[in-house]
Write a structure and sequence with these properties.
The complex is a heterotrimer.
Chain A: E1 3-7, H1 12-20, E2 24-26, H2 28-36, E3 40-41, H3 50-55, H4 66-81, E4 84-88, H5 101-113, E5 118-121, H6 127-147
Parallel strand pairs in A: 1-2, 1-4, 4-5
Helix pairs in contact in A: 4-5
Chain B: E1 3-4, E2 12-18, H1 25-35, E3 40-43, E4 47-52, H2 54-67, E5 72-77, H3 88-91, H4 96-121, H5 141-151
Antiparallel strand pairs in B: 2-4, 2-5, 3-4
Chain C: E1 4-11, H1 13-16, H2 19-28, E2 31-34, H3 40-50, H4 57-70, E3 78-84, H5 88-104, E4 109-114, H6 120-135, H7 137-140, E5 148-154, E6 158-165, E7 168-176, H8 180-195, E8 204-208, H9 212-218, E9 223-224, H10 227-238, E10 245-251, E11 256-262, E12 265-271, H11 280-290, H12 294-302, H13 316-328, H14 333-351, E13 362-365, H15 372-382, H16 395-411
Parallel strand pairs in C: 1-2, 1-3, 3-4, 5-8, 8-9, 10-13
Antiparallel strand pairs in C: 5-6, 6-7, 10-11, 11-12
Helix pairs in contact in C: 2-6, 3-4, 4-5, 10-16, 11-13, 11-14, 12-14, 12-15, 13-14, 14-15
The chains are: A alpha/beta, B alpha+beta, C alpha/beta.
Chain lengths: 148, 153, 414
């Protein structure tokens, strides 16, 4: 079973397909859950505190907006743990954790910097594309399973 | 600063989205309760939320998926169900992440269900050929010249 | 008083650890923050029709929600726009949405760019102003002072008191702020003496400024109000432009305010946010270094040429360094004074005035408006004749006295 970073990290479809084909999807919910289940200072809604924006300094300099650094404190550890990644490139309507375009650009860059296998896709627009989309993910994950 | 004491530590919560033409979320919920085995199940407008210890949740999910594998979709959730920090009633509107789900469920998921059904019938070894996410190619100058010449009287 | 519902349009606060600070600031003024409900189909349609094609999804959502609020698909009493400091994409959206809402609806709107260090305390005055405008439109519509009232402005540098009777100022008091209550007591005594009236004769009292709560509680004020709305009222009252647009600029001791006013009610505003090099404090330092009283700095500056001295820093330390260097290099005191005034005006212009729509008349108020060189420098930058009304240094106290006269009446449903 390989750790597979998904982009958009909030994607239901990617999360489902990765788990369905026997691997572990690494998405926003895992990091958010860790924050929600850790005691500390009260900082609703996500329990992300100003300290997390500082933790994000590992991935982006202090001149980078706090929202980017705070988001990177969620994604940085996931990217580091990833053994493969699936990226949907036309995810224009993923909000919240994926709501900042600058963070998203940095995420994609850091994933590619890792040198792990990456499957690049677009959302399918019809049933035929759906078939190929699912088949491509299955085949990518099978290959990943062999090497992981 | 106020201290924060988390609840449900060690549990996981999963969203179960149901896009089944055969069964309504309520039908699913009734069947899910039957196999719940002590795991917390909450019915929602799009399907279910399941909370419990990771192994228990996985076990229940396996059963629920088997009801209609191509039309049940599962995803992790960071918050426990009904958490007031994410509740629509408290926020005034949907949490931002909801729109992302709305997009995938309304516009994409049927193609995925179809893709999953078709996967079984797929010839082994057939290479997947999804549309390339690489941006479009541009018209080369020779072709452009031909077009211009055609349009000239 | 009903709870004011503030629609939040934002990108980033939840991820910067400051959402709770925003909620707390709103709760402190009996308001609640909410995220306007909208369907995905409306997000796509509203965003597309607005025409600002940004990449960040949360900014798209903010645009769609703003459009929904203006077009009446969504309801709110006020709007708070918050995005990350240093994000260019968000700054464009923040500015355009603020302008769009201001020009196309009656919703009061305030915008803020936060960092992870933003606290509820920083946001409190803005939230208070926002809720006041939403809650007390009737009170803010007052244009005439009636009866015998007093206003006290407990500012960070100076404390001012004004006694008014039947729309006229009859007593003034002014002192540097030392001990908050003591300074307030002293200026009130002076103003009452000048007016020739007793404290018991005063029918209503209003307080404003940093010390408004402390002083207001102590003297049992009828109205305790933040300075953004109070100064707006005071400014348009003194400048006699209560109808139509106006812009109020107050370069204060600790922070600056720029308020875009329509019919005496603030529409958009900014406050604070820059370093001491862009405040009245820097001009105080300058006058000390030049060996003149602060009252003489303005006339001195008017005789000088600012362009002869390079000075352009929003940091008071670097600003002072430029000042010392310029004097050491043999520049005239007049030129240095003019350069200091120009430097402050330029910082305020570059850092703050970009966030409000400058509409004429531009009214400068507060103690710094008495420094002629500063007013001229600001006028040059804005290419307009700045209005400095009489009693401009008492602006907060005048606004408080004016609003206090309507407050009792307002409370009884008038």
């Amino acid at each position: 079973m390989a750790n597979v970073f998904i982009y958009p990290a909030t994607s239901l479809i990617l999360s489902d397909l990765v788990a369905r084909f026997g691997h572990k999807p690494l998405g926003s919910a895992l990091s958010v859950r860790e924050h929600i289940q850790t005691a500390g200072f009260d900082s609703p809604p996500l329990q992300i505190t100003p300290e997390d924006a500082k933790k994000g300094l590992k991935y982006a300099a202090v001149e980078v907006p706090s929202g980017v650094r705070g988001r990177m404190s969620l994604y940085g550890p996931l990217i580091e743990a990833a053994e493969g990644a699936i990226i949907v490139n036309d995810a224009d309507y993923a909000f919240g954790c994926m709501g900042c375009a600058r963070t998203n650009e940095l995420i994609m860059f850091l994933v590619r910097q890792r040198g792990i296998p990456v499957l690049d896709l677009n959302y399918p627009a019809n049933e035929k594309e759906g078939e190929e989309f699912v088949a491509a993910i299955k085949s990518f994950l099978d290959t990943l399973g062999e090497t992981a | 600063m106020k201290e924060y004491q988390p609840k449900y530590v060690g549990t996981v919560t999963k969203y179960v989205f149901i896009e089944s033409p055969e069964m309504t979320p309520t039908d699913f919920a009734i069947k899910a309760y039957e196999v719940s085995d002590g795991v917390m199940i909450k019915e929602t407008c799009f399907g279910l939320q399941i909370t419990g210890m990771p192994d228990e949740v996985d076990r229940v999910l396996e059963r629920i998926r088997s009801f209609d594998p191509e039309h049940v979709f599962v995803k992790d959730r960071g918050f426990p169900p009904g958490d007031e920090r994410r509740c629509r009633a408290n926020l005034g509107g949907a949490r931002p992440g909801y729109f992302g789900h709305e997009y995938e469920v309304n516009y994409v998921i049927r193609s995925i269900s179809h893709g999953l059904s078709a996967l079984k019938a797929r010839e082994p070894g057939t290479e997947a050929d999804p549309p390339s996410p690489v941006k479009k190619t541009y018209l080369d100058t020779t072709s452009l010249k031909k077009i211009i010449e055609r349009m000239e009287p | 008083m009903s709870r004011v519902r503030i629609a939040q349009l934002s990108c980033g606060p939840e991820y910067s650890g400051v959402q709770k600070e925003i909620n707390d600031a709103a709760a402190a003024v009996d308001a609640e923050i909410f995220f306007p409900d909208i369907r995905l189909a409306d997000v796509r349609r509203n965003f597309t029709s607005f025409g600002l094609n940004v990449r960040s999804p949360d900014l798209k959502l903010a645009i769609a929600r703003a459009k929904g609020l203006v077009e009446g698909q969504l309801e709110a009493d006020a709007v708070f726009i918050a995005t990350c400091f240093r994000c260019a994409e968000a700054a464009i959206v923040r500015n355009e949405l603020r302008r769009y809402i201001h020009e196309n609806s009656t919703l009061p709107v305030v915008s803020y760019s936060f960092t992870e260090r933003t606290t509820s305390g920083t946001l409190l005055t803005r939230m208070e102003a926002l809720t006041t405008i939403a809650r007390r439109r009737a009170l803010l519509a007052r244009e005439r002072q009636e009866g015998l009232t007093m206003g006290v402005d407990s500012g960070s540098s100076t404390t001012k008191a004004i006694v008014m009777q039947d729309n006229r100022i009859i007593g003034t008091g002014w002192l540097p702020t030392t001990e908050v209550i003591g300074s307030a007591e002293a200026v009130m005594a002076t103003a009452l003496k000048e007016a020739g009236v007793n404290r018991e004769d005063i029918q209503a009292v209003g307080t404003t400024g940093y010390g408004r709560f402390l002083v207001g509680e102590k003297i049992r004020a009828d109205l305790i109000q933040e300075e953004l709305t109070v100064n707006s009222k005071g400014a348009v009252f003194l400048a006699d432009c209560q109808k139509g647009p106006a812009t109020v600029i107050d370069i204060g001791g600790m922070d600056n305010k720029a308020i875009s006013v329509q019919d005496g009610i603030p529409g958009t505003f900014t406050m604070g946010g820059i370093c001491a090099g862009a405040s009245g404090r820097f001009l105080e330092m300058t006058s000390k270094r030049l060996g003149v009283d602060i009252t003489e700095l303005g006339p001195l500056a008017l005789k000088g040429m600012s362009r002869n001295v390079p000075m352009n820093s929003y940091c008071i330390v670097f600003g002072t360094q430029s000042l010392v260097n310029a004097l050491a290099a043999g520049n005239s005191r007049e030129d240095v004074a003019a350069a200091a005034c120009h430097s402050v005006a330029e910082q305020v212009f570059e850092q703050q005035l970009q966030e409000v729509d400058i509409k004429e008349p531009v009214i400068m108020v507060g103690g710094s408006s008495l420094i002629g060189g500063l007013v001229k420098a600001m006028g040059d930058l804005l290419q307009t004749q700045i209005v400095v009304p009489q009693y401009s240094q008492y602006i907060g106290a005048v606004g408080a006295a004016l609003l206090a006269s309507g407050y009792k009446k307002f409370q009884s449903g008038g």
